[in-house]
């Protein structure tokens, strides 16, 4: 085993195999970086009421979609030509799954951008934006850390993200209650608050996708599937 | 990966120096990559063993080619032996029906039991043993006789058929089981060496099954065959696994992945890991197994 884990995929006898794997990895990280930025931009566009930025985000989702297709093709080609086994196989299979998570994160960012446009046009006093900012920061950090854990094959960091997901869920529920209060105070707030609720929902989903990526990182590193298992079980797998 | 590249020469040196545990020679080598003698990771044992092999050692003169290997081979399982060239997998396979006996400088130590009977018992009838434990070699080696006589040879010398019609039945059955009947039934008197390589290899399998063995050892049975012939032999292995115990040595990891229930990874005379084939090819336990099957050395 190499001393540095990130070199894990670069030591085959076949250089071409090394190149193919590292290409897949760097393309995946590029896509991850883009959807992370899309999410951050979308939250900013919403809070700043910036319609131009929101339009750009929506247009840029096409790039995300293209990247998904390119990555899937690369992964398929790698399986066909190299028949990867063991950790290489787990890597390729995980990338295929995580790519759809990233693509969905991209869709959530697009959705947030759409609400940013609607809310900017309505132009009323902001409600629930503190919660949007807070949860937005939380989930984009999770996504960033998940991609980092993938890049460094760090199962311990991946585990931290799995634990974070619970906190996001709690924050989301608290924010929902706050917005419900606003709606009850004044029924004219309802339409606007509903939009913000959808945004919060989208952000909560981003957290879920970050968590899925973290689970795949644990599978890549440890060879154990920790989906649909309590965090405590995953802790045992990583702690071994 | 520098650690892997330095591993082989380092351990080779060690073999000459000491017969005990292979000591790590490279500081950066992680603990998991150290081969500890007689410490096979995974599941080397079975509840229903056909072969029970304990502390097996094989020497060629002074060289210890097999180092304290313990393994069960379960009844009616297909087990694949994989590993880099010179790792001892063929040597170990040949112990199972005493094919090593013909090599003068070769000595076998340890306990090797077939159905709880000692294979290396001095009173053991080796011909009877090899009738029970048949073998198929790398290159198809039909006798320069007719197709019929190739298959009938074993039953004749073992006196398994009293009448011509019994012998005919054995030949037909064996050729059917080997998936060769349709291709061979109209040319049973033709010389076997005129068949294609794949047909010759299936003929050798038919010849091995003709004497109703319990175990079939295969030493790289497909390495001289094209992909279609290989697929036919692999299909045959799958069918035969219902009635025979099959041990297959292969250099093709995909083949091991395709045909076997369990896979055993050999390295420099050590048995490093034995596990369910599914596990070995998705998440092997030992670092050396991982490196070999992912193409990092070997």
TrEMBL record, chain A:
Pfam families: PhoU (PF01895)
InterPro entries, alphabetized: PhoU, PhoU-like_sf, PhoU_dom
UniProt keyword terms in alphabetical order: Cytoplasm, Phosphate transport, Transport
Gene3D superfamilies: Phosphate transport system protein phou homolog 2, domain 2 (1.20.58.220)
A GO BP entry: intracellular phosphate ion homeostasis
GO cellular component, one term: cytoplasm
Domain PhoU positions: 29-115, 132-217
Keyword Cytoplasm: yes
Subcellular location: Cytoplasm
UniProt keyword Cytoplasm, yes or no: yes
Record's subunit section: Homodimer.
Biological function: Plays a role in the regulation of phosphate uptake.
Assigned protein family: Belongs to the PhoU family.
Protein name (Swiss-Prot/TrEMBL): Phosphate-specific transport system accessory protein PhoU
Protein species of origin: Marinobacter daqiaonensis
From TrEMBL, chain B:
Superkingdom to which the source organism belongs: Bacteria
Cellular-component GO terms for this entry: membrane
InterPro entries to which the protein is assigned, alphabetical: AAA+_ATPase, ABC_transporter-like_ATP-bd, ABC_transporter-like_CS, P-loop_NTPase, PstB-like
Transport in keyword set: yes
Keywords: ATP-binding, Nucleotide-binding, Phosphate transport, Transport
PROSITE patterns according to UniProt: ABC_TRANSPORTER_1, ABC_TRANSPORTER_2
BP-aspect Gene Ontology terms: phosphate ion transmembrane transport
Entry-linked PANTHER family: ABC TRANSPORTER I FAMILY MEMBER 17
Name of the protein: Phosphate ABC transporter ATP-binding protein, PhoT family
Organism annotation: Marinobacter daqiaonensis
């Amino acid at each position: 085993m190499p001393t540095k884990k990130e070199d894990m995929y670069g030591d085959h006898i076949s250089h071409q195999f090394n190149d193919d794997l590292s290409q897949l990895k760097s393309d995946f990280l590029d896509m991850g970086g883009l959807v992370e930025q899309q999410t951050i931009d979308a939250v900013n566009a919403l809070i700043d009421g910036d319609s131009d930025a929101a339009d750009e985000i929506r247009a840029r989702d096409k790039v995300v979609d293209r990247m998904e297709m390119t990555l899937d093709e690369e992964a398929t080609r790698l399986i066909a030509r190299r028949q990867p086994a063991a950790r290489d196989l787990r890597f390729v299979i995980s990338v295929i799954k995580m790519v759809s998570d990233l693509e969905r994160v991209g869709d959530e960012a697009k959705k947030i951008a759409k609400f940013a446009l609607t809310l900017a046009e309505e132009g009323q006093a902001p409600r629930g934006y503190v919660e949007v900012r807070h949860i937005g920061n939380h989930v984009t950090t999770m996504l960033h850390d998940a991609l980092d854990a993938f890049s460094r094959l760090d199962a311990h960091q991946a585990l931290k993200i799995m634990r974070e997901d619970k906190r996001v869920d709690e924050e989301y529920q608290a924010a929902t209650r706050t917005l419900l209060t606003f709606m009850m105070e004044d029924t004219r707030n309802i339409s606007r608050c509903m939009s913000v609720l959808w945004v919060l929902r989208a952000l909560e989903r981003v957290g879920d996708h970050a968590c899925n990526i973290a689970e795949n990182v644990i599978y890549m590193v440890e060879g154990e599937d920790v989906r649909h298992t309590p965090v405590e079980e995953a802790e045992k797998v990583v702690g071994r | 990966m520098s650690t892997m590249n330095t591993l082989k020469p380092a351990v080779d040196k060690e073999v000459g120096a000491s017969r005990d545990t292979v000591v790590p020679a490279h500081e950066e080598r992680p603990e998991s990559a150290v081969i500890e003698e007689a410490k096979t990771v995974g599941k080397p044992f079975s509840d229903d063993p056909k072969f029970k092999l304990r502390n097996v050692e094989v020497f060629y003169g002074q060289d210890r080619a097999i180092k304290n290997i313990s393994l069960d081979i379960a009844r009616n399982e297909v087990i694949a032996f994989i590993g880099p060239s010179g790792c001892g997998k063929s040597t170990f396979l040949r112990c199972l029906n005493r094919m090593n006996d013909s090599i003068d400088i070769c000595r076998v130590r340890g306990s090797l039991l077939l159905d709880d009977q000692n294979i290396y018992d001095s009173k053991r009838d080796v011909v009877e043993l090899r009738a029970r434990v048949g073998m198929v070699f790398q290159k198809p080696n039909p006798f320069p006789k007719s197709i019929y006589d190739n298959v009938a040879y074993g039953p004749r010398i073992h006196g398994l058929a009293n009448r011509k019609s019994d012998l005919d039945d054995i030949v037909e059955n064996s050729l059917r089981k080997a998936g060769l009947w349709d291709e061979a039934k109209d040319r049973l008197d033709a010389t076997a060496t005129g068949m294609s390589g794949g047909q010759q290899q299936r003929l050798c399998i038919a010849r091995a099954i003709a004497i109703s063995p319990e175990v079939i050892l295969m030493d790289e049975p497909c390495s001289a065959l094209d992909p279609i012939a290989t697929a036919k032999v692999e299909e045959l292995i799958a069918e035969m696994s219902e009635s025979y115990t099959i041990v297959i040595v292969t250099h093709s990891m995909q083949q091991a992945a395709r045909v076997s229930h369990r896979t055993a990874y050999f390295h420099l005379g050590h048995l490093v890991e034995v596990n369910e084939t599914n596990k070995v090819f998705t998440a092997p336990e030992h670092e050396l197994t991982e490196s070999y099957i992912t193409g990092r050395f070997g």
